[in-house]
Amino acid sequence: MPRSREKRLKSHRFFFPAACLHAAIALPLSMAAMLAGWSWAPGLAGGHHGHEMVFGFALAVIAGYTLGPQPKRWLAALFGLWLTARLGYALAPGFWLSQLLSPAFALLLAWRVVPRFNAAKKWRNRMLVPLMVSLCGLPLLWLMLPLLPVPEATTLLYTGVTLLLLLMTFMSGRLIAPAVAGTLEKRGITQEARVQPRIEAALILMLGLAAALTLLPLPVLPSGALLAAAGILILIRTVRWRLWLCLDRPDLLGLALGTVWLAAGALGMGLAWLLGRDPSALLHLITVGALGTLTIGVMLRIHYHAIRRQPPPSGVLMATLAPVALAALARLAAGPVPWSTPGLLWTAAGAWSLAYAFTAGALLLSR
Fold this sequence. Notes:
transmembrane helix, NnrS, globular, transmembrane, mainly alpha, 2 strands, 2% strand
């Protein structure tokens, strides 16, 4: 069969369920490794669970969202490489091949995805190219960590989280603004605040600069100020969408809740750095609250639109987003020294696992 006529498969049908199952399984195993002493999955213990959250789970969701339809051979190569990387890193994170697999997947993903965004004309749209290259290049930086002037792996994770914050901020605006405008226009209401280009431009510049500054051997005060200001702008942008006029659209309300988590996480992290406090607990407002809410909302929205041409049922959204909120609040309550409150950690892990197990079930079973 000529390559131009080769059958293409939708990437989200593979990467979305896999990402959900990874999220549902990896975090409880990580808690077991750290709290119960399980030693057979060293790649999920300690700081490694942050590596898997950003470079395993988040990159799988990004792959499902950005790749679109792919030829079977390319999709099989990408998915097989991602799966092998997850197993290899979980079982033997120190082995050289395990360390190479995640960067290999990320670079191959960037090679397939980045050309799709090159046609954009406005600079605000073209920023997806360097953002995707940066996100996909982070696993390579992680591999080169001993050679970099970055003091520890935690610093690189802060960079990754800030880049994810920027990506979620950008993409959530591009999803929510037109959907809200379309919903209101059907009722004869004009929505003036849509993409809000000035706020969007300011957020891109501030969060991009904050991510770059985290990699430099500089005080965290400038990054903290940029993050705090970005959190306030994200909240202003969300309020200007007037989502209280869309109470009959739980899918949009769920995505809006995700942007509120983004605002709270950015503001919390920024203030923690400005006050000289440990931001590790507040970081989870982004990596649990925002990332969980937005990824589940987007995956369910794409899935139900593909199979039924309608938003996901409100019951499914409640059954998934409520546990994510519980997980985020429990992890926040555990504080920057969480090991003294293992009950809260288990609550957070259990709620997170439940949310993604239910999401995986909805993606695999609803037709």
